[in-house]
Specification:
By secondary structure, this protein is an alpha/beta fold. The protein contains 25 helices and six strands. The protein has helices at about 1-20, 30-45, 50-55, 70-90, 95-120, 120-135, 135-140, 145-160, 170-190, 195-205, 210-240, 245-255, 270-280, 280-295, 300-315, 330-345, 350-380, 385-400, 415, 420-425, 450, 455-460, 500-505, 510-525, 545-555; strands at about 405-410, 440-445, 465, 475-490, 510, 530-545. Strands 2-1-3-6-4-5 form a six-stranded mixed β-sheet. Helix 5 runs parallel beside helix 8 (about 145-160), helix 9 (about 170-190) packs antiparallel against helix 10 and helix 10 (about 195-205) packs antiparallel against helix 15 (about 300-315). The longest helix has 28 residues, at about 95-120.
Length: about 550
């Protein structure tokens, strides 16, 4: 049975890396940290002419975002990944950077699983692993360079330390370390974790697990340490005195500006986000309530559930809500569900009701894992910008008739929001030696509407990645289309796909092409039936027609 435990443990990092490889591109929410990591790797940290070099080379001066974010995560990722990238090649840099973050979060989950095993037993730890592995969102986002996922590992380590220990001295030390981890996470990465720090502290004070004499010095030490690290580093990179998370708290909580990104009802986290994150409907509807009600698991489940639910309840007062803002509660809530699942499963031979319940729980894990796998496949189709950039570079560099040595590309807003990053634009550092015939790519990400209406603006580009080709000015031809996910379609025999009609005769690149091939094969096998992703054109790859080509196009 030790082999089973090892397999379940190895499955956590393995599945996180699988999610990374299946969906290697990023979205706009991840852009600050991924671009900042690129810039640190490529340009380093200048010690002279600092403002001039940072402001002309670093991406965040051109695209600062709504609020300034900390550079601590990118500095750590760049520093750790640099020797690995030097060994395997810069073209793999984005995968390596994201992989390191994913492995950090995987390590935190494994530490949490180990704490569950020590406190609640081997079989409960197995159920925790099975439930965690069948959840899509945590595995998918673990390697994504969101501020939340830098904080997630710290909060998960904190929860692992909050799980009870038989030795009173060890338990008190672990509680202090949990407070330290949450303090760092809140002060450096995500200020909302201050709420989780408060709810966790109040709960453990109420249960007499820790005293104020232990809490206050621990908090002050880690809080000051966090400020000593974040303020100098972030003030250097932003070139002004700055504590990013204080500014983020002021922007979101005091000014209420986060509401500009959308407002959700107060119950959204409880009725939508938590069920979605935990994936298995039995976890929220049956297992967690049962763990809190059942006398055999109640005392173990309460420390996991109560601080987490209080955090979510208080944070629900913030009008703008996103599921990723409460990812931190997934491990403890999953552990509570595992307590109930294990309690029921170990009694399966005692009654028919326990046996039936065990079968249903086991079946729900299989169903959740299947749904999670389907969601991974579908989610990988949501990055047309990254695919379009990769396909365009391959298309240009493989064209035997191309006589350009420098290619200038404009990427529109949708392209940049769905996968275009500096790693994708420049798959090698600017100072690396290249073959003499290597094509040099330069990129433009202009968003200003007035500039985009000027004919002279478009004259300088050789290629364009555009959501709407009609917004470009001048003679252009579509050399390819990258499609993206647009829902699920059910097709009957003889019914053409909406995506096929819209794409017309344009050549489809990327995963849209794979979906078409798979759909055609399955429809031949099923007599014309298809149930699967519906793909629609998202990014058009446009090539400027040169003078002679433009005249021929007009004549034709």
């Amino acid at each position: 049975m030790a082999a089973l435990d090892l397999l379940l443990s190895l499955a956590i990092p393995a599945l996180i890396l699988t999610h990374l490889l299946v969906a290697p591109y990023t979205k706009v929410e991840e852009s600050f940290n991924i671009q900042a990591t690129h810039d640190i790797l490529v340009y380093g940290t200048p010690t002279n002419n600092i403002y001039e070099r940072l402001s002309t080379q670093y991406d965040h001066f051109d695209f600062p975002g709504a609020v300034p974010r900390t550079f601590i995560g990118p500095v750590l990722l760049a520093g750790i990944s640099q020797p690995i990238i030097a060994a395997v090649g810069f073209q793999y840099a984005q995968l390596i950077v994201r992989g390191l973050l994913g492995l950090f979060n995987a390590g935190a989950l494994l530490v949490f699983k180990s704490s569950v095993k020590r406190a609640f037993g081997r079989s409960t730890a197995r159920w925790y692993a099975l439930l965690q592995l069948s959840q899509f969102h945590i595995l998918f986002y673990a390697s994504r360079t969101l501020p939340n996922m830098f904080a997630f590992g710290l909060s998960t380590l904190a929860f692992s330390q909050l799980i009870g220990h038989p030795d009173e001295k060890v338990r008190a030390w672990r509680y202090r370390m949990a407070i330290g981890n949450l303090t760092i996470a809140a002060a450096v990465f995500r200020s909302e974790l201050a709420i989780l720090l408060i709810t966790t502290t109040l709960y453990n004070l109420a249960r007499s697990h820790i005293s104020l004499r232990q809490i206050i010095p621990t908090f002050l030490i880690f809080f000051v340490l966090s400020l000593v690290v974040t303020i100098p580093i972030d003030s250097y990179f932003w070139q002004k005195p700055l504590w990013p998370e204080l500014w983020g708290f002021y922007y979101n909580a005091i000014l209420g500006s986060s509401s500009e990104w959308g407002v959700s009802p107060w119950h959204y986290y409880f009725t939508s986000a938590i069920p979605k994150i935990l994936m298995n409907p039995l976890s929220t509807a049956v297992l967690i309530p049962y763990a809190l009600w059942n006398a055999g698991t109640k005392s173990q489940a309460q420390p996991l559930v109560i601080p987490s639910i209080l955090f979510v309840a208080i944070y629900s007062l913030q009008p703008h809500k996103e599921a990723r803002f409460i990812f931190y509660v997934a491990p403890p809530l999953t552990a509570a569900a595992a307590l109930a699942a294990n309690y029921i499963f170990t009694r399966r031979t005692k009654s028919v009701s326990f046996l039936l319940a065990s079968v249903v729980i086991a079946g729900s894990v299989v169903a959740s894992f299947s749904l999670s796998t389907a969601m991974l496949v579908i989610s990988s189709l949501n990055y047309p910008g990254g695919e379009a950039l990769s396909e365009l570079r391959n298309l240009v560099t493989s064209s035997s008739s191309l006589d350009l040595q420098t290619v200038t590309v404009h990427t529109d807003v949708l392209s940049c929001m769905t996968g275009v990053t500096l790693f994708g634009q420049h798959p090698y550092p600017p100072n690396d030696p290249r073959p003499t015939n290597e094509i040099v790519f330069t990129y433009d990400k202009t968003e200003d509407e007035n500039t985009l209406r000027s004919p002279s603006f478009w004259e300088k580009f050789d290629y364009v990645l555009a959501e709407d080709p009609n917004k470009t000015i001048g003679p252009w031809e579509t050399v390819g289309v990258v499609e993206g996910f647009a829902g699920v379609e059910v097709m009957k025999p003889g019914t053409p796909s909406k995506g096929d009609i819209e794409s017309g005769q344009d050549r489809v690149f990327g995963r849209g092409s794979l979906v078409r091939k798979m759909k055609g094969h399955i429809r031949r096998l099923t007599g014309g039936w298809w149930v699967g992703p519906r793909m629609e054109p998202k990014i058009h790859m446009l090539r400027k027609l040169r003078e002679g080509e433009a005249r021929r196009a007009v004549t034709e």
